[in-house]
Amino acid sequence: MGKKIIARSQASCGEFIQGIIGGKELIVSCPIDMYSYACVEVDGPIYPLAKKAKEAAVRTLDFIGEKKEVLDRLSIQVHSDIPVGKGMGSSTADIAAVCTAVAAVFGVQLESTELSHIAVSIEPTDSTIFDKITLFDSRNGTVIEPLGKAPDMYVIVLEGRDRLDTIEFHKIKKHSGHPLDEAYRLLRSGIEKGSVEDVASASTMSALNNQRILPKPYIDFILDSAIARGAAGITVAHTGTSIGVLVDGRKGDMERIEDFFVHSHITDYYKVYGRKIINSKPEVV
After folding, report:
1. Is the alpha carbon torsion for 130, 136, 140, 142 positive or negative?
2. For residue 71, what is the DSSP state?
3. CATH number at residue 13
4. Angle of CA points 120, 122, 126, to nearest 5°
5. Which of 60, 146, 242, 282 could be disulfide-bonded to 100 (CB atoms 3.0-4.6 Å)?
6. In the chain, how many domains are there?
7. pLDDT per residue over 261-272, tens digit each?
């Protein structure tokens, strides 16, 4: 057995914003500390590989100038802590982790923009592949605007019970809601100022706008209950089934808010747990 590399890429709790901004459908993902891991080993045991992971490996080899046949010498395993089909970026994380690990085996460190172009050649991609909060065209891999680091924030994830195939949803989606330019200006200002309140307000605007596209059950109850207990707002998986309650890391009462939703027993959301909103990109570990 030869060189061995493990890489990881983070999840998202939906998006701070997703919708029409400047006349185009764009996203700003909400990155959190849950991960997919890819282990790549030269001349190790061969394991069955999911279609997207295999495609990520093949396209990465092509990008770095290695022959496709090299794949036969690579042992690739993917393990993920990220729920599938909930709008939490599991596919992007799997693809990004595999790309990062395969490139690293050959001594190549992919830039985020390079990784984005590989990833979107497989499927629409979240902006979790960047180490800053980023306005991103998820379909063609274009960075519209890097916004900066997220302020000190946590999210209480209300993980949806149902699953949604994002690719199929995009095929049948009939409209994109109202333009979100005002929400985006507020988000950008919030990131610049380090204002949790502004970031959460912008995210809440986008979440409510998304109700006419992919409604989330009990969203008004969740939002009102969260605000009443000191939360700053909400985020949603715009093409998934989960909701996140945004909490100021400096003054929010995470335990109190999380405990309330754990004991609310809203049947559409079968898991409740807290996560940190992070500023990082796919990396070798």
Report:
1. negative
2. G
3. 3.30.230.120
4. 40
5. 282
6. 1
7. 999 989 999 899
- Identify the pLDDT of residue 252: 79
208/177 Cα distance (integer angstroms):
10
* Angle, helix 51-63 to helix 90-105, in steps of 10 degrees: 40
- In sequence order, which residues have a C-beta less than 8 Å from that of residue 217 and are 6 or more positions away? 266, 268
CA nearest 76: which of 108, 42, 110, 34?
42
Check residue 216 and report its DSSP letter: P
Give backbone dihedrals phi and psi of 97, rounded to 5 degrees, phi first. -65, -45
Summarize the confidence of residues 263-285 as an average pLDDT: 95
Q: What is the average pLDDT score of the chain?
A: 94
Residue % of the chain over a pLDDT of 70: 95
Sign of the torsion angle spanned by Cα atoms 58, 61, 62, 66: negative
Q: Where are the alpha helices (DSSP H) in the chain?
A: 51-63, 90-105, 112-120, 166-172, 181-193, 196-209, 219-228, 254-262
Domain interval for residue 33: 4-284
Q: Which residue has the higher pLDDT, 24 or 165?
A: 24
Give the side-chain half-sphere CA count within 13 A for 36: 28
Q: Nearest Cα to 75, choosing from 36, 42, 37?
A: 42
Least confident window among 1-10, 36-45, 91-100, 160-169: 160-169
